[in-house]
Protein 1
Amino acid sequence: MSIRHGLLALLARGPRYGYQLRAEFESATGGAWPLNVGQVYTTLGRLERDGLIEQGEADAEGRQCYAVTEAGRGEAVRWFAAPITRADRPRDELVVKLALALAGSGVDVRAVVQVQRAATLAAMRDLTRRKLTAADPAQALVLDAQIFQAEAEIRWLDHCERTLSTR
């Protein structure tokens, strides 16, 4: 997930200040990707440097507001129109962990799979509980995505166990 594009998308709705962007980002994603305010301001600085946003007037409480430029609006439109590729996603640490466990490290791979399964099932239960109280459709969809990813991980772990049992 590109914080840069997430902030541009929020700014395309209208000028906002840093803390407001952080709160709206976390609300829209259901807290799935918590941001610290320093990360927000660092990203805002880079967006301003790249001509994608500009500082506007301070609000009534003296907070510096940022607004998207035409170049920034175009970048947000391009981001929404482009698919996210596998290369855009970070490495899957679980896949790397199991591959290294199988690579002759002396680790009990079946135990690694079982520990992961228990953790993933617990996470899935938590996500399902949180979805029941999701405040808006955006949060519910983020939680749905996380639940589906957890389900896929459980299926993959089942596949790993079947594969390991034949060796």
Protein 2
Amino acid sequence: MTTTPTLLIVDDSRMSRMLIRAIVTQLRPGWAIVEAASGEEALTQVEAHQPDFVSMDVNMPGMSGLEAAGRIRIRHPEIRIAICTANIQASTEQESRKLNLYFIKKPVTEASITQMVACFEE
């Protein structure tokens, strides 16, 4: 059992990762945070750190966030995953719902990240 909640932030944008990290650290200073810049790296980080929560971008080079989230969901159904994306097309949101993922619209703001944290803790 994890005593310190761990969040994995997956985004190819270093700036987005930094913003999400800063806001989550302010909201939940006790959480451990790890990062990945791609879907492939996310799969490695999940096995290494076994996070409780994942913030996942969709549009990344190589494996998409939806594919990475689906793979994580199969091996670790207990992990709560939020798709955090500027790709707000209905098809992306529908696919997220099919995979039982939270859907958070970018831009990364204090309000959007507060919403994501609330989803993780519901």
Protein 3
Amino acid sequence: MLTWVIYDIVKDKPRTQVAKTCQRAGIMRVQYSVFLGDLNANEIDELGLKIKSLIDEETDRVYIFPMCKEDFSKVRLLGEAFDKKLVTNEIRELFL
């Protein structure tokens, strides 16, 4: 299932740890605090637990949005949408 992970984390160290956790989960960075990739339900749960252990729940915000292909096809990208330095062709192809 295509999954977005979007976060706003106050401190640098946990923010870096969350980014590395997302990368290790196999999802790709599309902006500095936005990741996208294909995860199954168990992988989404596991990622959520790992991120929860890294953040401060009083100050940080993390959104994990699993999307079915039908809903994903309705996503509209505006402006640059992705950071060109971070996004691979694999991600761009998801939106063609």
Protein 4
Amino acid sequence: MKTSALPPTLTTLEPPCDTAPQVKPATPRAMAQPGSFKQGFWGVFGSTFLTIFLAEMGDKTQVATLLMSAQSQSPAIVFAGAATALIATSLVGVLLGRWLATRISPKTLNSAAAVSLLFIAASLFWEILQF
């Protein structure tokens, strides 16, 4: 019979009771500076999901998917194609956003997005007034 090389007290799985409490390393959330935009996984995932889900409800993409599903009588294939296309466009957005974030500050990106959306809104409003 083969015996263990360790003393019997070191082979047990119970932790020693006379040790000092261990200090847990700080989590990224705990290390975030006040006012910074550091969020955990579920915070970023949840806000992204909710924003995109609500933005896409009733959007022209959803209406087009609805019509293609009704027309083709193959809803599973339409779902696969639409989901793949949305994933691909999301990937392009993420990669482009990451590239821009390395070159432009978040404050400048927010300002540029706001100006772009205001320009689009003004253009659409102007187009409505032309009729």
